[in-house]
Write a structure and sequence with these properties.
By secondary structure, the chain is of the alpha/beta class. It is built from ten helices and nine strands. The chain has a seven-stranded parallel beta sheet with strand order 3-4-5-6-7-8-9, with helices on one face. Helix 3 packs across helix 4. The longest helix has 15 residues. The radius of gyration is 18 Å and the shape is globular. It starts with a strand and ends in a 13-residue tail after the last helix. It binds NADP nicotinamide-adenine-dinucleotide phosphate (NAP).
Length: 277
């Protein structure tokens, strides 16, 4: 396993598990639970979710998957922007705790920027942290100006991550946001690392992987993990695919392979507005 260090010094596996759309369908529920449990067995302890996912259904499914082994998981959840007032953040977190069947969320994020002031959300996060209901807090889908604003507010400098859309075809953050976050030692959590599976059918990536003996999912994940300070959270509800995705750790991409991927999927040459899904 590769590890990424949070600002607190705590190390987290660079590969975690996403859960968007998990718990939505009765037919796939058992396999999804079993996949999360297999992921935990294999060391994928970070499980990412949000109150938004299935309006709580994904959190409930996770609660079932981690029953009796809460200590083996690092749980990340997110508050809706419209709930992110001081009181609303606390209330939303308490609902998430209940669904997750735990008394503490490891990392609690503001899902994206809404109309409520950041200062209120930070007050909610700080109160939750003081009460032991969350260990760390952070944000998601925040651009550079949002991060700078957050850093000017009490508690803003303690943000533990910015969860962002980042994959071979979405490299805009490399222009200025990623360097700024690196300067503050705040790791990015890369979501949709295989572009919700669209990257797997990308002819350029498919050709690349044919030449290098790995699958497209493995190449996309290995590229992110080669950065050394990125946590990535692919979602799969299938046991065979969690093993395949974990196999990305077996591929240390060479300088030549990374250069070839830069040629096929070029980094930005100018500022790009923040993209989100
Ligand atoms: N903060 C945010 O705003 C935000 C936004 C989007 C996502 N996220 C988080 O990031 C996680 C990952 O992003 P994502 O779910 O959008 O997209 P993703 O991880 O890039 O792709 C997930 C899709 O790829 C399929 N898949 C996974 N591994 C595969 C493999 N080896 N071979 C073939 N297909 C494979 C999955 O299907 P199966 O399940 O059928 O395998 C699923 O349809 C989410 O689940 C969520 O936790 C956060």
């Amino acid at each position: 396993m590769k590890f990424v260090t949070l600002p607190s010094g705590e190390k987290l596996p660079a590969l975690g598990q996403g859960t968007w759309y998990m718990g939505d369908k009765r037919e796939t529920r058992a396999e999804e639970i079993s996949t999360l449990q297999l992921g935990l067995d294999l060391g994928l302890k970070l499980i990412d979710t949000a109150e938004m996912y299935g309006e709580g259904k994904a959190e409930e499914l996770i609660g079932e998957a981690i029953a009796g082994r809460r200590d083996q998981a690092f749980l990340v959840s997110k508050v809706y922007p419209h709930n992110a007032s001081r009181k609303g953040t606390i209330a939303a977190c308490e609902r998430s705790l209940k669904r997750l069947r735990t008394d503490c969320i490891d990392l609690y994020l503001l899902h994206w920027r809404g109309n409520l002031p950041f200062g209120e959300t930070l007050e909610g996060f700080l109160a939750l942290q003081k009460a032991g209901k969350i260990r760390y807090y952070g944000v998601s889908n925040m651009d550079l100006d949002d991060m700078q604003e957050l850093f000017s507010l009490p508690g803003g400098e303690a943000v533990a991550t910015n969860q962002l859309l980042y994959n071979l075809t979405r490299r805009g953050i490399e222009w200025d946001l990623l360097p700024w976050l690196r300067g503050k030692r705040i790791p990015v959590m890369a979501y949709s690392p295989i572009e919700q599976s669209r990257l797997l059918r990308n002819p350029k990536l498919v050709d690349f992987t044919k030449c290098h003996g790995m699958t497209p999912a493995q190449a996309a994940l290995a590229w992110l993990m080669a950065k050394g300070d990125i946590i990535t959270i692919p979602k799969t509800g299938r046991r065979d695919r969690v093993k395949e995705n974990l196999g990305a750790l077996d591929y240390e991409l060479s300088a030549d392979q990374l250069a070839e991927l830069d040629r096929l999927f070029p980094p930005p040459k100018a500022p790009v507005p923040l993209e989100m899904l």
